[in-house]
Amino acid sequence: MNLRRTRAMASKELRHIWRDARSLIIALALPVIMLLLFGYALSLDVDHIPTLIFDSDGSPESRALIARFEGSRYFEILGFVDDYRTIERSIDREECLIAVVIPKEFSRNLLTGKEVQVQLIIDGSDSNTASIALGYAEALVANHALALQSAQEGGTQAPLPVEARLRVWYNSDLKSQNYIVPGLLAVILMIISALLTSLTIAREWEMGTMEQLLSTPLRPAELVLGKMSAYFAVGAIDTVIVIVVGVLIFEVPLRGSLFFLAVSCFIFLFGALCWGILISAIAGSQLLAYQLGMMTSFLPAFLLSGFIYSIENMPAPIQMFTFLVPARYFITLLKGIFLKGIGFELLALEVAFLTAFATLVFLTATRMVKRTVV
């Protein structure tokens, strides 16, 4: 392999990128737009739950329970109602998510030691949000019951045999942005890299310039590395932009080694760029290359990498398929570096998988380009 020929190929691609100002602006602006859009719009936090209160008892004891809901940051009291019909209409109009119904005999049963029930009516259209909101409400009612029991016994409540003490590591505020933004880096890099390079060789064929390249002493490996090097610079700039925006705007903690993060991004970016060139060599046309690039980069990185949906909850065949998705390993690396501050000694397996993927895709792309040349 001749470094001079590779450098000449990279220079040619850089001039092409620089002259195509619109594509360059899109390549640099799209990551920021995607990060801001997904970072702000895509939230897994469940708080400020719109809540209605139906207090049939109207006693000091029921008002004490209502005060707990009003003082919780997870619930936003919309108002008080006096019938089930109003609750039904509010849920149908998606104005409220949960309604708390306190029965008439609430205070009497409470003071006489009888069983007390509080009804929770919840909109189950979104099962995930509904289950989280229901868990918050049940925990709040249970804590209120324990406080009342302790007060009735004069503050001498016997200690429970097992007591849970909660301590959250790595994301103590439980902010979904700290979970989403590092994963977005993997999704954005996969999309941008694959789409940037998936059009390169196909464009050469459609513009009729591939024959000129074939008449030069340029070898397939030099062609792949030359084209990839030009777009690697654009991808590196995108990586820096996404990291800076994530840390400064979304305040995602970066606890790990910046050098290890750079090396991990380098390996993943190399593999993603080579994947785009492989698609371009297979497709032969820019339209087909674009469609294949989007289908094989965005969808697996978004759906099958653990970015949003837990891999452990997927069917077994799908879980097996996720081992072929490089974004899965990169997201694990990013979360470990950003949130946990761990290094190579605990993430060596993920680095090895990404390195194997990048090497395999580079060799396959070189072979496909060689076959196209022949």
Mean pLDDT: 82
The separation of the N and C termini measures 18 Å
Number of strands: 4
Query: Which structural category do the helix and sheet elements fall into?
Result: alpha/beta
Number of domains: 2
The succession of helices and strands, N to C, reads HHEHEHEHEHHHHHHHHHH
Total helical segments: 15
Q: Quaternary state, please?
A: single chain
- Largest sheet features: 4 strands, mixed
Percentage of residues in helical conformation: 55-70%
Residue stretches low in confidence (pLDDT < 50, at least 5 long) are none
What's the quick description here?
The chain has 374 residues and is of the alpha/beta class.
Task: Kindly describe this structure.
- A four-stranded mixed sheet has the order 2-1-3-4, with helices on both faces.
- The chain has 374 residues and is α/β, with parallel strands linked by helices.
- Helix 10 packs across helix 11 (258-283) and helix 11 crosses helix 12 (286-303).
- The chain has helices at residues 3-19, 21-41, 60-71, 84-92, 106-111, 127-152, 176-197, 200-207, 210-214, 220-248, 258-283, 286-303, 316-322, 326-340, 344-373, and strands spanning 49-55, 75-81, 98-102, 119-122.
- It contains 15 helices and four strands.
- The protein folds into two domains: 3-43 and 175-373, no CATH class; 49-152, abc type-2 transporter like fold, CATH 3.40.1710.10.
